Amino acid sequence: MTRRYDAVVVGSGPNGLAAAITLxxxxxxxxxxxxxxxIGGGTRTAELTLTxxxxxxxxxxxxxxxxxxxxxxxxxAEHGLEWVHAPAPLAHPLDDGTAAVLERSVNATAAGLxxxxxxxxxxxxxxxQDWDVLVDGLLRPLAVPxxxxxxxxxxxxxxxxxxxxAAGHFHDPAARALFAGMAAHGVVPLNQIATAAVGLVLALAxxxxxxxxxxxxxxxxxxxxxxxxxxxxxxxxxxTPVRTLADLPAADLILCDxxxxxxxxxxxxxxxTGYRRQLGRFRYGPAAFKLDFALDGPIxxxxxxxxxxxxxHLGGSLAEIVTxxxxxxxxxxxxxPYVIVVQASLFDETRAPAGRHTGWAYCHVxxxxxxxxxxxxxxxxxxxxPGFRDRILARHVSTPAQMAAYNPNYVGGDINSGAQDLRxxxxxxxxxxxxxxxxxxxxxxxxxSTPPGGGVHGMCGYWAAQSALRSR
Length: 472
Known about the structure:
five-stranded parallel beta sheet, 17 helices, about 35% helix, about 15% strand, alpha/beta, globular, single chain
């Protein structure tokens, strides 16, 4: 006899697993269906280059993973998850051989920024003190805030453009570039309104909880979530692709950890025409072009501060980063792209054979772009780490098309599953009072195409499951 489930979750990314855990905690019988051989979505690890070199296929550094209001309530350490912290969360090298380094301490960071140190301290010290209430308010759908004063203080700064905030608060190139590099994670032109928000959140999270990596690779995050779900009685089935909702066993609730395009494919004509039309208008942002490296030694950064950081932002000055991030939003591949480098094996020895290292780097390109950015990315690394190319034993290239093939939620290579500008931040996937519920009774969307958007924090899945539980 086929087992009866109360809820079925389609997709096993962090949001799908968070939704399933939330439902299982509420006593529901839950099934997770995953088409791939392993669970994890954007938190998978594989030997992409050479035997013994473990690479994270997508995400590696997880400030919102350790700081997630939901994940931090779970006993994930008991299920094998160990966070590893670098001495410094991130660094931003400059052409003069120095680097701006974001330390865990606001005061230590300020001390390294010279004349801009006092301005940095004035900007971030009060916000870091509000971190717990800010992260609770920011990682949720639009609602009446529980801590309006703290959110108002943050909001007045966050509504500015990243370019305007950096130029207005800081005077020297180092502090301006440091903030621009953090804001550029939002994959939105830095002269647009509210782009300062991403830079502020990344800096606050780095100070408050760090920029840790999961020992052994990001797959450990998914494995811990899956193990905990099974301890609650949940069931996970891999290698079981879902083509339509008709492929699923009967259940009162269906939650889809998919993009809007994926939901259209799954639900088809079961969705009302108007809602289908709205989903079809959902906008996807620029794509990622990613390189994974097997290295015969650590990246030879010119600036010593970069050797202490888990994440290194490459892009030079504020003006250069603004130019680089403007290009993919307007259909162009930047000549000198802004590049994010992660070097987890410096601090987690399990990721490479003894004496060897891994590293990855990616830049933003237009959605669906076919331009080969390999030489441009490596030139940016070589610019700040002369001799880097000589360290490469092997490389693995992930184009936007390959990203989309790896994870169908990454439409056109968009790893945020939707543009995260002000227009679409709280109205993803469509403008509705409950963004997770569809017009079909019992059918919900729980992916990062819903608020609060991209990142490994599970909050999209958590809030979607809460919506589903309220409805029942």
